[in-house]
Amino acid sequence: MTTTPVVRVLGDLAHAGSHARAVACDCPPPRVLADRPDGTVVRRGPVVAKAHAPDTDRPDLADRLALAAAPLLAGVLLPPLPVPAPRQAPETAAPPAGFLGVTPDGRPVSLWPHGEPVDPSDPDAAPWEEAGTLLARLHRTPPPHPLPPMRGPAKAARAVARMRAARPGDPDTAPVLAAWRGLPAWARDEAPSRGLRARFVCHGDLHLGQLVRHPAPNGPWLLIDVDDAGLGDPAWDLARPAAWYAAGLLAPEVWLRFLDAYRAAGGPAVRAEGDPWPDLDVAARALTVQTAALAFAKSAAEGRSPDAVEQLMIDACVRIASLPPELTPELSS
Fold it and tell me: For the segment 49-102, what is each residue's pLDDT rounded down to a tens digit?
């Protein structure tokens, strides 16, 4: 593995976060867990360091980190670790205090305890019930302090912009754009979400990669990655599995395991019984568009056609675009 400057910085921060003071040790070298434009994640020993996107709104991120550390959400969100102050000359400006640090090149950094992720090779053991229960607990928790808006709609809008840039004028993307135009303005991040449903604490980017066991390897499941968390419509957090189910990517029995656990825990995103789709329709359509747009963007960047799984989400957009607005409670035919 080539160790880049940011990986070295994150590895050193993770190492410092795992030791109360400088010590000689046989800690393993840094291990890169993710390296994308929106974040670089490095583990060293029991601590994980994350460099967030360079354009991250730092006050909003600080509020989100404080949310993860809030006692009200203990047992729901993985709490961050304090970022140790770097050794510096007295005249050097002090770094941000608490849970938010800064790399030498100015990227915001957070530290986290290592958790055991979902095993992708064992889909039958995926914690769908636990995910539903954790989401319900999150949504039922009153905001412990002022929070920014949940960033789900902003990520959907960014995915569509990425598709447009990657495939300008491509007629194959027309159904995705038509499905996008059929969404209300708030779901396209063109207007604030209003009403009572916009006031819930939301995760903003729920998928199985956002759960870990902590303490590893057999502790309880917790939600991770609060970069998109904030106030919004809780239906957004159910929308990705709902879209997968409607497109045929998630088996009905798995979808019901997730939905029933959410309902049993008192989740407010859907009615307590009966058809949940009226509550999920807009968010599920938005996540379908987001996934299809990313499929087009990624396949273009890799010089290939969309694969079979990606094509299912694109086909779902074709079905959405073919229906009049009053007939779009279902993504599947």
Answer: 999 999 999 999 999 999 999 999 999 999 999 998 765 544 444 444 589 999
- Listing DSSP states for 203-256 in one string gives -SS-SGGGEEESSTTTS-EEE---TT-EEE-THHHHHHHHHHHHHTSS-HHHHH
Assigned domain for 333 exists? no
Q: Which range among 10-14, 144-148, 291-295, 328-332 shows the weakest confidence by mean pLDDT?
A: 328-332
Task: Evaluate whether residue 332 is within a structural domain.
Answer: no
Find the angle CA(276)-CA(277)-CA(280) to the nearest 5 degrees. Answer: 95
Dihedral Cα 214, 216, 218, 221, nearest 10 deg: 30
CATH of the domain at 83: 3.30.200
In a shared domain, residues 58 and 172: no
Q: What's this model's pTM, rounded to 2 decimal places? A: 0.91
Contacts for 259 with CB less than 8 Å, ≥ 6 apart: 132, 238, 270, 276
Cα distance between residue 52 and residue 249, in whole Å? 30
> Is the torsion defined by CA of 30, 75, 56, 207 positive or negative?
positive
> Who contacts 24 (Cβ-Cβ below 8 Å, separation ≥6)?
none
The C-alpha atoms of residue 143 and residue 146 are separated, in whole angstroms, by: 7
116-117, strands of its sheet edge to edge: 116-117, 211-213, 221-223
pLDDT band with cut points at 50, 70 and 90 for residue 333: very low
Confidence band, pLDDT 50/70/90 cuts, at residue 23: low
